[in-house]
Each structure stands twice: as C-alpha cells, then as structure tokens.
Fold each of these.
Amino acid sequence: MRNQAGMNEKERTRRLTVMGLLCAVAYVIVAVCRIPIVSFLKYEPKDVVIVIGGFLYGPLASFAISAVVSLVEMLTVSDTGFYGLLMNILSSCAFACTAAFVYARRHTLKGAICGLLAGTALMTLMMLLWNYIITPAYMGAPREAVVKMLPTVFLPFNVFKGGLNAALTLILYKPLMRALRLAHLVPESGAAKKGASLWNAGTLLAAAVLAATCVLILLAVKKVI
C-alpha cells in the first residue's frame, strides 16, 4: 500500500510538472508569436500545446492549461481585457477539449485526426455564435456590421486557425512525446511503441493536406478583404 501511494504521489507530481511546462510553453508562444491576420484577429499557435496536454491527460487538462494561460495573457500581453480572456478560453476549450475527448476514446492516429477535425468544427461554430453576441460591444459597432463579418472574416479565420493548429499538432505530438519520455516525465508504453510507425507514416500526409488547405483559406480571405 505504501509503495502504491508513493507511485501515485510520484505520478501526480510528474503530471503537474508536465502541465506546468506546457503552460509555460503556451504562454511563451503567446508572448512572441502573435500574427495579425484580419481586422483585430491574430493567430497564435498556443492551442497546439493545449491540445497536446489534452492528448496526454484528458479534456480537463486542456481546460486547466487554457484557463491559466489565458488569464496570464490578459494580465500581461493582451490588450483585449476580459473580452479576450473569455473568447480565448471558449475558443481554446472548444478546439482542444473536443479533440482530447475524442482521442481519449480512440487512442489512434485516426482518433487524433477525427478529434482535431471535430474540435475545429466545434470551435468555428462556437466562435461564430460568440462573435455575434459579444463582438458588437467590443468593437462598438452595430450588430448588422458584425453579421456581415461572420462569413467573410470570422468563419474563414477560425477554419484557418483550427486547421493549421491541427496540422501542427499532428507534426509535433510524437517528437514532444519522445522528448518527455527521454526526460522521464512521461512513462513509456508498449502501445506507444507499437503505434509509432503508423503515426509517423500518416502524420506528414495529413498535416500537409491541412496546412495546404489553411494557406488557401488565408489567401482567399486576403483576397476578399
């Protein structure tokens, strides 16, 4: 019993260490990589780190990392205040928690891809709704003006953001897992070894397709705007 308790405590400490590390990495990404895309919308790949946390420890881990990073972002580098905090948490959780939920039930490359696509779809739909509700007050613009932006600005931006984050997640997940295992922060598993070759064979193709799609969406948005 004592050994089991010691193992559980060690695992909790290891998990908190990894989650703290992911929070730090996500915040650094926010601080140094905020790319203006259209209107007041900026792309930042922090959701890649948040969804990887969810792939490791489940949807609640994604929520916790998103909440911590979004709060620190609001207090330091963000200029959007509470609006930005709310929208960041809603967007990141819709994407990352959904992807982690699907992946937890289907722990394969196909499960990861399905989860990431589902996360992108839910995030896009949710952000259309919340931009319709909140953005008029944030921009100080009539709702009719915001409604016109939904199909031309917010829809393509969120599809672009979700697709690119999904592609980056597929590319970076296995290398990050290898690094964490080498640091003895994540235990090795037989299933991980068995599925490694399949993951590596499929990720480049899937990521390339997603990335190419995102580039086309961005070019289309720039042309429309």
Amino acid sequence: MTHETTTHQTDEAKIRTLFEDLLGDWGRGDGEAYGSRFTEDADYVAFDGTRTRGRREISASHQQLFDKFLQGTRLTGRILSIKFPGPDVALVHATGGTIMRGKTRPSPERASIQTLVAVREGDEWRFAAFHNSRVRPIGGGPAGFLIWAMTDKLWRIFASGKEDA
C-alpha cells in the first residue's frame, strides 16, 4: 500500500465522518453545528436553487428552517463516491432524503442527489460547496412526462417574475 493510498483512505474516512456529522447536526436541529461543517466562504445551493454564501449565513438560514418548517425532521444520506482531484480537495457525490416529523422513512418526493466539494483546512476537512438537486427524472411514460412538464408550467404561472438570486 502506497503512502498516497493510505492518505486517501484516511482523508476519505474524515470526509465520511464530516458528512455523517452534518446529518446528525440536522437531526438535532443545530444550525450552528450544521454551518460549522462548511468553510467561512462556502457556497450552498439548496434543492430549490436558493444560494447561501458563507458559514454564518448557512448556520442562520438553517436554524430558521429547523425552528419552523423542518423542526423535528431528520436528514438521511449516503456518499456514493469521493474523488481527489488534488491532495487538499475532494469531490463528493451523495444522496439525500428527509424524514419528516412523525414519519419513519424519507419522503420519496424529497429524494436528492448532492455534489459537495470538501477542502482540507489544516488537519480538518470542511465543505466549500454544496449543491442539492431533487431527483426528478423525465422518464416514466406519458404520465410521468406530464407531471414533470406541469411542475414547470405551475412554476411559470406562480413564481415567474421573482428576482433571480
């Protein structure tokens, strides 16, 4: 086993722990801890396209969600892959889901695919970027396509004209 392989295994384990800690922070409704998993200047893109910048804003915005709409929810997820384009940077692909309050399993309509960029800061890893997209394949026959197309139409009717972020 080479030194590089051992280093990548250690770094991969730290990144997996970082991801698990992020899930745990969500489950405790702890916006401060959740935000602490990100760099000071992190970029965070939520499933709806909302972009949040910086650790403090990520912490504050999530605490508001945890205190209201997402109170009592739990985040689930699984890392699909970790690639190291450089010694201090990792590209992470993961799945995500939300177990709503009073439920025992993630809501299928909340299934997500995520791309995260982790960076080394000293001996620690933090996320510098996070992009979350809901899983909404176009397939599924005519009915599936119709549902997919209708969501675009509904958005155009009710949300168009809002300022882009």
Amino acid sequence: MLEAGLKHELTITVEDKLTAAAVGSGALKVFSTPSMIALMEMCARDAIQPHLEEGWGSVGTLVNVRHLSATPMGLRVRCECELLEVKGKRLLFSVRAYDPDGLIGEGQHERYLINNDKFMAKAMEKLNKTT
C-alpha cells in the first residue's frame, strides 16, 4: 500500500553522457536539465516499485522543476523524493537534487500506476494503426 510520506534517494556521478552538450539541451559540459529530470523520475519510480504487485509499474506524466545551479562533470548528484499524495492511481512527489555545493534543482513530479502488459498493448496498437 502506497502512502504519503514514502521517501527515497538516488545518487549518480555526472558523466559526459549526462551533460547538456551530450544530450543536446545546451553546449556546455555540465549536468543537463533533461538528465536531472530523468534522475528525479528514476528516484520516484524506484521509491514505489518495491511496493507494487508483480506486473505493475508506473509512468511519469508531469514534471514541474527548476534547475537552479550548474554541476560540472565528475561531481556526484543526489536526488531525494517524497510521495506527497496518492489519489487512486495518481501519485504526486516532491523532488530535489543536490550536488556537494547544495541544492541544484527542485519541484514536483507526477506518476500514474499502470499494469505493464495492458499499457504496452495499448501503446502497440499505435503500430497496428500505421501499417
């Protein structure tokens, strides 16, 4: 049973493939906003996955974050998330990211619980419509 208050954290090291220059969101070799968002989504996903029944997962549906400070390659980034509310299959998280110098990003992230097989079947229907 998922309840508000569930917390999780995840730490990564900023590598070249996570920089703005590598992902195309900018020209500099600093931690990219898309990579920060992906870290926040992974943190929220990982927080709830152990609590779900087999065959169930979650998908991100909304991200509202601010990227506050640049982080160069080689530094570690720690993400913290907290489940703020559960409304049926809708989950709302608070997300924050830190480097050794302090807060680098914060905001909210929404996820929905899904049955993996049903979700993929519906997605694959799009292929059938195009052929």
Amino acid sequence: MKMMLISKKIAGLFLFVLFSGAGLMAQVQQQESVSDDELKQFISAIQQIQMIDQMAQQQMVGVIQEEDLEVQLFVEIMQAMQDPNQEVEATDEEMVKFQAAAEKIEKIQVEIQEEMEGRIEATGLTVQRYQEISMQIQGDPELQQRFQAMIEQG
C-alpha cells in the first residue's frame, strides 16, 4: 500500500508537469462547447493515458530501486528540492543515487510524454484541445455529468 501511495505521488508530479499550463491556456481562450464525439475521444485518450501512466510509474519505481534508493526517500528529496522550506536528511551517497535516478526518470518522462501526446492525437484530438476539454470538465458541472454518464455507459 505504501508503494502505491508513493507511486501515485510520482505519477502526480509527472502528470502535473505534463499538463501544467493547461489551466491558463483554457482560461485565455473562449470556451468552445464539447461535442459528444469529442467527449468520447477524450475518454478514449484518458483510458490510454492511464495505462501508459501505470507503466511509467513501474518504470520510475524500478529506476529508483536500481539505484539502490528507497522510493520514499527519493520522493522526500524531490519535494525538498521543490520547496525550500522543506528539509530532508540524505547522505552524499544518497544524493548521488538520487541524481542518477532523477536523470533516468527525466528521460523516461520525455518518452512517456511523447507517447501520451501521440495517443491523444490518435484519438482525433489535439493535445491543446484535450487540455481545454479537461479544464472545461473541471469547471462545468453539466459537462462533468455528461462525462460521468459516458464513462458509466462504457
């Protein structure tokens, strides 16, 4: 269970990086209505992205473990690097292992981002439109209901 929580943290950081800026982009543009076809394409893209994300999580955890570093410590170091108010105790050797793992993970993330973007585009959506729909779903209760109904229908 602990590993799953840590993997979700890593994945959350990854997906945040992948789609950061989507909110600003969607807010600047006028909101275009989302057709049922686009919503179906969006759902297909999400399902594919989730599968890719699960594989990426396993790869990233594997890289961290290959460097003989605890996943929890990797996450703590990453968080401390992003938040100057947060401290973490790590030896010089652990920091070297962290750096090696982080470099490998960065390469994985680039590959995974390209794969995710390709899968989105294979559904017939552009990455930009995917991000716009994502933001609209978050801010539009009626669209959320349509989205949920389509997911439940399968």
